[in-house]
Design goal:
single chain, Heat Shock Protein 90, rod-shaped, 402 residues, five-stranded mixed β-sheet, alpha+beta
Length: 402
């Protein structure tokens, strides 16, 4: 078994105690100078033992205390060394501070009971008021160090608990910060994708048409659409930059799009999808006098329609694209229905799949329901397949805030 190396402070205490004890012995200063039960040099044995036990005060506090108790009792049968008693009080203190929790809890009570017992026994034995001094000495040697050690240990444990709590709080704060940054980055990614993807897809499709078709009129029409989408894309980018700077106070916030702008959005989709043979229609059956939609719901619905129309322009087969909005029972229903096919008649733009993810995230943040996929309308063959996007959004202000 490997013996733990003593702490350097314990070595200093042991050496200092031994030298002080030898000094008192050399000066013939003893606690029990009149006792001659043992030779005078016998007082050095408990002194040396106790000094050696000081080396174990941190690494083995319980064995050191037990052996120290034997040594201090033996010291009373000699002429007595004050240093031995002082070092024993340090062993008692160290046993409470560095010992196991169970021992640290018991020692103050054990030493307190021992002090009371010693006082009562001394009074009954000597029947003199001066006998109370025996109890006082026992209390000073045993109970006092134990109580002091308990106070120090409790203070250290409280400080350690506070430190761990502070570290935990810092860790939770860092986790909250990371989550907030991640959520903000996801929000920015959705906004950037929804703002720019529509215009860039139209630019890609019409630039391909302008390069592949030799007609001057067709090229002029395509370039006109490219210019319009470029201007609108720049405006959207400026709006996003304005939103980002609004948090720092560098610019005034810019209003977010609402469902009032669906007409212009559908009209833009008609122009962008004309080259692919798409016909885009809007069916808004919401009541005219209905409640005003919360801003997050309006923005989410607008972005879902925008992204769905972008996907239709990029991927849908020629045919009719229908956008339907309805409000019933405090739930806003947004449906986009487009022809589904592997090939479209016009140029196509590549997709990354981030649009569906963004739409699903927007609906989930509002506590709604989202679905997207190919369905059949009852017509045989692939002509009967339609790509349907459906979102159910809570239109109640309280539901959104919750």
């Amino acid at each position: 078994m490997r013996i733990p190396r003593p702490h350097r402070h314990d070595v200093v205490i042991a050496v200092a105690g031994l030298l002080c004890g030898l000094g008192l012995y050399g000066l013939d200063l003893h606690v029990n100078a009149r006792r001659d039960l043992l030779p005078g040099w016998a007082v050095l044995v408990p002194l040396v033992v106790t000094a050696g036990l000081e080396l174990l005060r941190r690494t083995a506090p319980r064995p050191a205390l037990v052996a120290g108790t034997v040594a201090v009792v033996a010291n009373e049968f000699t002429v007595g060394s004050l240093v031995t008693i002082v070092m024993f009080t340090d062993l008692m203190y160290a046993a409470v501070v560095y010992g196991k929790p169970a021992m640290a809890r018991r020692l103050p009570f054990v030493t307190g009971a021992l002090t009371i017992a010693a006082t009562v026994a001394a009074v009954l034995w000597w029947r003199d008021a001066e006998a109370l001094m025996a109890g006082v000495l026992v209390g000073i040697v045993c109970f006092g160090p134990a109580v002091t050690g308990a106070a120090v240990r409790n203070h250290r444990e409280a400080a350690e608990t506070a430190r761990l709590r502070a570290e935990q709080t810092a860790l939770l704060a860092e986790m909250d910060r990371v989550q907030a940054v991640t959520a903000e980055r996801a929000r920015m990614a959705r906004e950037l994708h929804d703002m720019v993807a529509n215009h860039l897809s139209a630019i890609a499709i019409h630039s391909t048409a302008a390069l592949s078709i030799g007609s001057a009129d067709t090229s002029r029409e395509a370039l006109t659409v490219i210019r319009e989408n470029s201007v609108q894309g720049l405006a959207e980018m400026r709006r996003l930059i304005g939103l980002l700077r609004a948090d720092t106070g560098e610019a005034a916030p810019v209003a977010a799009p609402t469902l009032d702008g669906l007409g212009a959005l559908v009209e833009q989709a008609r122009v962008n999808g004309a080259a692919s043979g798409l016909e885009v229609v809007l069916e808004d059956v919401r009541p005219e006098e209905g409640p005003r939609l919360p801003a997050p719901v309006g923005l989410a619905a607008y972005r879902i329609v925008q992204e769905s129309l972008t996907n239709a322009v990029k991927h849908a087969a020629p045919g009719r694209v229908c956008v339907r909005l309805s409000l019933d029972g405090g739930v806003l229903t947004v449906e986009i229905d487009s022809p589904y096919g592997e090939q479209c008649s016009g140029p196509r733009a590549p997709g990354s799949g981030a649009g569906l993810v963004g739409m699903r995230e927007r609906v989930a943040l509002l506590g709604g329901e989202f679905s997207a996929g190919a369905e059949t309308d009852g017509t045989a063959g692939r002509e009967g397949l339609r790509w349907r996007v459906r979102a159910l959004l809570p239109a109640d202000e309280k539901a959104v805030r919750a």
